[in-house]
Amino acid sequence: MSSTLTASRDLFRTFPVRDFDLAATLDSGQAFRWQRVSSGWQGVVQCRWVGLCQKAGGIEASIVEPTTDWSWLEHYLQLGCRIGDVTASFPKDEPMRRAIEACPGLRLLRQEIWECLASFILSSTKQIVQIRQIIEKLCARIGRPVAVPTGVPPAFEFPTAADIANVSEVELRALGMGFRAPYLAATARLVASGGVNLEALPDMNLESARSILMQLPGVGRKIADCVLLFGAGHMRAFPVDVWVLRTLRELYFGARKRTMSEVVRFAESYFGPNAGYAQQYLFHAARVRAGKLATENHGD
DNA sequence: AACCAGGACACAA
DNA sequence: TTGTGTCATGGT
Q1: pLDDT tens, A70-90?
Q2: Residue A252 burial by CB count (10 A; 0-12/13-18/19+): exposed, middle or buried?
Q3: What does the pLDDT read at residue A297?
Q4: Which residues of the protein have their beta carbon within 7 Å of strand B?
Q5: Which residue out of A55, A92, A137, A222 is catalytically annotated?
Q6: Which of A156, A176, A238, A275 is placed for a possible disulfide with A143 were both Cys, Cβ 3.0 to 4.6 Å?
Q7: CA of A222 to C1' of C1 (A)
Q8: Does the structure show a pLDDT above 60 at A44?
Q9: C-alpha separations of A290 from A3, A35, A130, A222, A298 in Å
């Protein structure tokens, strides 16, 4: 029996957050496991099934086991983030102004670091749709099932590093990972054995955290920065992939030839304390322009 | 049906 | 330090 002095255990909660575009955020290539359904989005956060829905008053979340503690989801969605302050810290130039205008409400999530690391090891030279397919297979094959509402398709935890370390490389290749399989296997073994402590990354400075990640097999500068930005909360990390490289060249260098390292060096000093956030606006705006979103109408 | 994808790595020069 | 070939796989 519930007391008026204790919070009720609920299956639903509406977070009254403004300037948060759920679709843009969950389909911007930072997380790969969210599924669009008629009622909104379904995914798994910290081993719990979650349904999310954009409402007029904010974001409505539904779960399976009633709880009083929603801090895990508030943290994942970074509901404490003042997005206006973030965008206000971007460079006051025309490219950024247009990127902000093109993706109002785009946010950065704070994902679990291992899932983020493993996911981006699998991301190299893959289209986002394919990355999602591989990860879905991986979770269905190795991940433990989580409780879902009746009528909802089965959902799975993201496999732990130990889970993946205990699977043969041949079995990983069978999931369609190709040359990424040995990278994921080796990194999983290192993480599972305690050779690297991912949980220490958020409290380290950016450069130290980056150098630790880049020692892992299959992790270079770009993937390291994705993990730092999407999982470890380093808002200055600035992943440069082919999209961002092309976009920065067009927007800031015109026709003049610039190498990858020149563009990276420029980005490090130009975009400020929330450079990684600015990067996500540029990346997503470019993908919107190219019609690459899963939520788009592909019929024309 | 070629082309390319949120790269990393070994190796050459 | 910078440039090039290689690595698998499948969507568009």
Answers
A1: 999 999 999 999 999 999 999
A2: middle
A3: 45
A4: A 28-30, 120, 123-131, 179, 183, 214, 216-224, 226, 239-244, 279-280, 283, 292
A5: A222
A6: A156
A7: 19
A8: yes
A9: 54, 21, 17, 22, 12
Q: What is the dihedral of CA A296, A18, A247, A263, to 10 degrees?
A: -150
Please name which of A128, A221, A114 lies closest in space to residue A158, comparing C-alpha atoms. A114
Shortest CA to C1' contact from A219: nucleotide: B8
Closest protein residue to C7 (Cα–C1'): A179
Give the pLDDT score at A5: 52
CA dihedral A164→A166→A170→A173, nearest 10 degrees, is 0
For the stretch A20-43, pLDDT in tens is 999 999 999 999 999 999 999 999
Check if A126 is active-site: no
pTM value? 0.96
